[in-house]
Amino acid sequence: MKRIQHLATAALALSLMASAASAHPLDGLTAEEYQRINKILKDGKIANDDTLFPLIELKEPAKADVLKWKQGDALDRKAMVQFTSPDGFKEAIVNITQGKVESNEAIKGQPMVLFTEFMDALQGVLGNPEMVAGLAKRGLKPEQAFCLPLTGGNFFTEEYKNSRLMKVPCYRVPEGSNFYAKPIEGLFAIYDIGKKSVVRVIDTGAVDVPKDNWGYTEEEVAARTPLRPKMNKVTMTQEGGPNYKLDGSHLEWDIWRLNFRVDKRPGLVISNLDVNDGGTWRSVIYQAHLSEVFVPYMDPTEGWYWRTYMDSGEYGFGLFLSPLTAGIDCPANATFLPATIADDKGNPLEIPNAICVFERSIGDPAWRHFEVFAQTPEKPIPAEGRPATELVVRTASEVGNYDYLIDYRLQQNGQVNIYVGATGLDAVKGVASTSMKDPTAKADTAHGTLIAPNLVAANHDHYFNFRIDFDVDQPVNHFSTMDIVPAKMDPASPRKSMWTVEHKMPNTELEARYKLSSMQPRYFMISDPAREGYLAHEPAYMIHHGDVSYGPFDFANDPPMKRNAYIEYSVWNTVYDPDQRYAGGKYAMQSDGSDTLAEWVKADKPLMGKDIVTWFSAGFHHIPRMEDWPVMSTEWKTVHIMPHNFFAHNPAMTLRK
């Protein structure tokens, strides 16, 4: 029997070595690799059947090795593994290829929430006598309550030391589709998910639970109000099948090629994004992914002030990927792909239809020109132009009440657009007011909007930080800005004001952080100093613009803002460091702000002659409105990346009619 087990293990190891030689080094971990990781740790007596794994991520090979890699080369496959132990959380580096553990150290921080911990909190709160009593005061039994464990941030008090806290408000169990329509306001528990116990229950006074179910399925909506007349469906069709080619994680389309994977924390990761310039493949971006999502609420009351979520680092955008639906989330002709991550036990968990890939005609011209001077009465000449098509790689993560779509959209003119679509449901609190005419309305809406009778949606923000490691032609790039500034005018000139472009190159990390303002127009350039471009320009890509927002926050003294101080500026630049992947720090859960992008740049490293990573925070302020309820329209925010003197001409010129 032992010999059979040994042969099976050897066969698995040989299979993994073969796949390592054929797979791309930045491919996501496979189901077989997750199983292998588990076995290596258990064989080494480091893990056992009771061990839980908050996070298992690919430990990427050195960037230089990846850039030298050719198909058929073998690089060791490794994983960073965070896991529970009798001594607390630990982190190991597991060499999957060689079957050994290279390091095993205690974690200096709190890893992301386990799903097991989430469920323990949900059930543990409803079994607490104080919570049961609080529900009884509101005429409810535990079985009538649905409780939602939420990360409680870190407010640097004794309560947060040597603990792992979640705060758990509850809702009336829904009679329809909407789980958030009936908040049980004024009552929540603080639960230590590490110790599996209720720390305390807070009851600030009962508020009547709203009566309306506010369902959003078609049947529920039809019961409330007439549906619109039926319309002829507008669908996308494609004769002859897709123009893109998929080979595992490798995707090629038009002038683009890239690799992609899903990680448990950031979700979709794009790597090795190259563009074809007249038959030559040129590098644009080595890697891009979501770095952190920060959603702070602006309600200072006891039940709301702590709602300052770090959705990616605390919960995981990859963990909460939801299956995409053909004809709704993506066109019916899209290619749907699964994602594989690890569950709490370290076993492979496949999420079906987690990624969709599709190309679409956007119904706009890529370019056009109508030449009026070429027209004659005898021979009218139509406009010359080409239709625009784009490729979309999409995922959708449901983190609590919100759904976030993440798109990477590639254009035929060499541009890249990162889109974030926010939809789902507003977070609501129960109030006495049913109308703004009520005497309680002013107090009830001091920090939000009455969006339905007895429901206020609190004001809040959404910030999405992306880590974009540009490698324009090569890793060592220049970073600079093009600023629109007043031109010096000759007093004799009839023109008294013009603008000109001023090129500025920051020397260090602290100099290379910026806010965006229409009052101070500026473009952010990443260029290759070693390559003489067409017409002797320095070839570049630039962040042209993006959706940004700023708040009057105190980044020195307000704990949530100190933990997420990277939102103070929209654009940051750092010297490449493989350990600096997430702007909010490696361990977001109850972090103290000491390991963040805003702290890393205090080293103020020189940028000249270095491999530079650019960080961009897109965001928006959300002042809720009645039109957000019971479900929100998708609000799209962008990061717009475009070539600047990279190509010899408009790449879309060569499109066919």
From TrEMBL:
Gene Ontology terms, MF aspect: copper ion binding; primary methylamine oxidase activity; quinone binding
Enzyme Commission code(s) on record: 1.4.3.-
One of the GO biological process terms: amine metabolic process
Keywords noted in UniProt: Copper, Metal-binding, Oxidoreductase, Signal, TPQ
Keyword Oxidoreductase: yes
SUPFAM superfamilies documented for this protein: Amine oxidase catalytic domain (SSF49998), Amine oxidase N-terminal region (SSF54416)
Domain Copper amine oxidase N3-terminal: 111-205
List of catalytic residues: 311, 402
Modified residues (2',4',5'-topaquinone): 402
Highest taxon above the source species: Bacteria
Ranges where the Copper amine oxidase N2-terminal domain occurs: 24-106
Cofactors named for this entry: Cu cation
Cofactor: record remark: Contains 1 topaquinone per subunit.
Modification after translation (UniProt): Topaquinone (TPQ) is generated by copper-dependent autoxidation of a specific tyrosyl residue.
Pfam family, one: Cu_amine_oxid
InterPro entries found in the cross-reference section: Cu_amine_oxidase, Cu_amine_oxidase_C, Cu_amine_oxidase_C_sf, Cu_amine_oxidase_N-reg, Cu_amine_oxidase_N2, Cu_amine_oxidase_N3
Sequence ranges assigned to domain Copper amine oxidase catalytic in this UniProt record: 235-653
Family, similarity comment: Belongs to the copper/topaquinone oxidase family.
The protein's name in its UniProt record: Amine oxidase
Record organism: Rhizobium setariae
